Amino acid sequence: MVGAGPAGLSCASTVEGRVLLLEREKTPYENISCAEWIPPFLDIPCIQKTEGMLTIYPGGEKFSPVKGKVIDRKAWQKNWLSSLKCDVHTGEKVLYVKNGRVRTDRGEYRTEWICIASGPGRAIEGLIPQKEHLSAVNMRFKLVKPLEYTIVWFTEEIKHGYAWCFPRGEMVNVGLGMRGRISSMIPRVIEFFKKMGFIKGEPIKITGGLIPQEEPHPFMEQKILFVGDAGGFTDPLTGAGILSAIDTGRLAGKLVTGSISMEDYRKELNKTYIPFIRRRKKRKEDMEEQWNYLKSTVERYWISIFPE
Length: 308
Prior knowledge:
Mean pLDDT: 94
Largest sheet: 7 strands, mixed
Low-confidence stretches: none
CATH class: Alpha Beta
Shape: globular
Oligomer: single chain
Order of helices and strands: HEEEEEEHEEEEEEEEEHEEEHHHH
């Protein structure tokens, strides 16, 4: 098992004692670039429930009653990792994967199954590289005034992406994902949410990451599986990926343990995530093509998918 994010943890906990988990970071739960929002039905402790989403765009504002909750991903992943009943090697970098062999900076392993959950933009020799993604930055601020909903801001300057402001108790996650030079837009995003009165001062913490924009690719030869962000199981439109990471990791674990067949594994992915993400990718591509008409584009491709 390569990677100790939600997908890797989900797979490892499903397989339990019959897995070796390799993670390049010594503390993989420390530098997570994520707004930390999840659907309300996921059984994960939350910091705060959210009552809706406010979309701000060139056409004005639109509130959608999309309920959810914001979690503490660091605490959640740290606790999950410590509870695993398997061998865990942190601080061990995977260099090469092929034909049931995994070579790291500490040695080499042989195995029947290899499950890749190393996140987006992986750079492991022998694997198909991910080429299409958005750059993302998440910043942690102290929340100045109460906020019971999430905020998403679309502007032409944040090319093919959006900025966010997601409350988490006394703190708030502020960030953006986009194509192009993201560093030039960070001060603009901070200033925007300062003017709204939700933040002030400098960020307490800044983390960067990538948001996959490719179609799912769950398989390679020689029993190599890809799950979570590494497998392209991220919503290209919204950037959401925690739920799909947990689900695809668990499903891969069932396949590895023989609880389900390869045929059933393929059927399940083809019934749920693969067609959904392909539809969302097409919607995102159409949105990008019409970015110069952002008012109507946001209304047609973003606001329309959320309930009134």
